[in-house]
Amino acid sequence: MSDIIHLLPDSVANQIAAGEVIQRPASVIKELVENAIDAGAKNIQIIINDAGKTCMQVIDDGKGMSEIDARLAFERHATSKINKATDLFALRTMGFRGEALASIAAVAQVELLTKTDNEELGTRVFISGSKYEGQEAVATNTGSHFIIKNLFYNIPARRRFLKTDATELSKILNEFERIALVNPEVSFSLFSNETELFNLPETQIRQRIIHLFGKKLNQELLSVDVDTTLIKISGYVAKPEASRKRGAHQFFFVNGRYMHHPYFYKAVMEAYEELIPVGDQISYFLYFDVDPATIDVNIHPTKTEIKFENEQAIWQIIAAGVKETLGKFNEVPSIDFDTEGMPDIPAFDDTEPVAIPQVHVNTDFNPFQANGGGGSSAPSSYQRKEIDWEPLYAGLERGSKVNTPPPADFTMSNLVESGVVESKASPSLYEEQESKNYEKGSTLLQFKGRYILTSVKSGLMIIDQHRAHIRVLYDKFIDQIKQKKGSAQGVLFPEIIDLPASQAAVLESIKEDFAAVGFELTNLGGGSYAINGIPEGIEGLDPVDLVLKMLETEMEKGGDVKEEVQSILSLTLAKSAAIVYGQVLSSEEMSSLVDALFACVSPNYTPDGLSVLSTIMDEEIDKRFER
Which CATH class is domain 10-200? Predict the structure, then answer.
């Protein structure tokens, strides 16, 4: 039998390693900027074109590299950070494995210009797909200048899996924020398609946070300072009243490195228990300084997950430190003994005789006599009074308007006007198939404020009212986007929403779709937007929360095409505006909803694949009553 095991070529091995280290353009920016910081750079400039898919540049004023180092840096496991295995337990640098440049060069076209301070000429190196293409002397500034072009040009499958430019730019900005927050002594500038997004001068940590996320955050932060033999914690946490449903800025840093740690997140939230609503998030920026020998940063290729030796003890320290901060700044609720309007309690006087309380009873009281007693001596206050109970039952008739009203657009007439239901619409394929079962005008019953029941020829149909309304509203909103006919309703007092640069970049890219749904947004500059108009039918909902929810959904899913972005916006808005479980509906409202549902092309399922209706067949019902 012939041998079947062989060594992979270096180019293939590098591409495999690149799959772990370089996942998207943001990974390239992270690795190059961290290398620049390790090189002692004090000024770093980042230039991005087409969200990094076309070109990325990172320019620094660090120590630079010699001619030999510039060539050797692109070899696998070539590094200046460690020399022996024991160095892994005393790491203070961002990178150390020597995989970043080799992985980048394996999946992109790379050009490097670099020069040390004691050299007159620098070096230019060209590498494409791990293939060395040339090297020459060149006049350049001290430091390094990386130019990365056509990422994943030699792996088309990987390139196709990249998200939209807005999503990829958002990922880059997220990585940029993490690095900038932990290096306030370094000045940064970032340009996207020749537009300056950030220009951060050298400053202190608190000012760096404000420069990144807005001045409003300055009024919400409380400083944390804990110093123990096990760990030193510094940074800031937000006040309880600054909690929000989503979009909180949450950052852990360990020895100058960003870290994702769900266990420590629970420690922070433990301190806010019963201080913020359930489900709310709180912003925090916490910096840990620990002995490098007590942590392992090499358990994940991107080094964002770190293992601690004393996790449980550190958990206790974090929770206690945050609680101490909240108490120190008087940000916890206290009992206020307000005596205004309260009766004065007399002081005890031991000279006064103590009298036993006496109970006075009317022995002549008889509740079955009209005058309340056995004789004319019964007090007049005991006279029975005739009470008219009828007003208490007012409004309890079937279909009364006392019930919780549905959304404003939840009537048949409005559905017809909005275009969701046509007065003489041709039946959909599903309606034609179900016409034998469901008949318009059938009796509808509501069950537990959640389901709508109706009798059909084949059995009993059960409709989920919340999901049915999602289906109806989704079709309405997606139609408005595609036809650009979304109607906006102006607001008397515009809401102001402040967005970090990562979310503002996404909003600008899909602003037209927001307008098509019915949101009127005005850019006020600096990441602030005014919400001047909202879609009709979502009155009572928080427009700021809706915009944030749609932005975050788009950033998480990152549609590859415009249609998917439109679908995400429509579905998020439909879920927020749909009637809730427990809402009581009248017969007319149930009929309007069911008729609108069966006018949809796909009434069986919500856009995200959840069942809307189910039918219990006659045979199954009969079996339950067999002897």
Answer: alpha beta
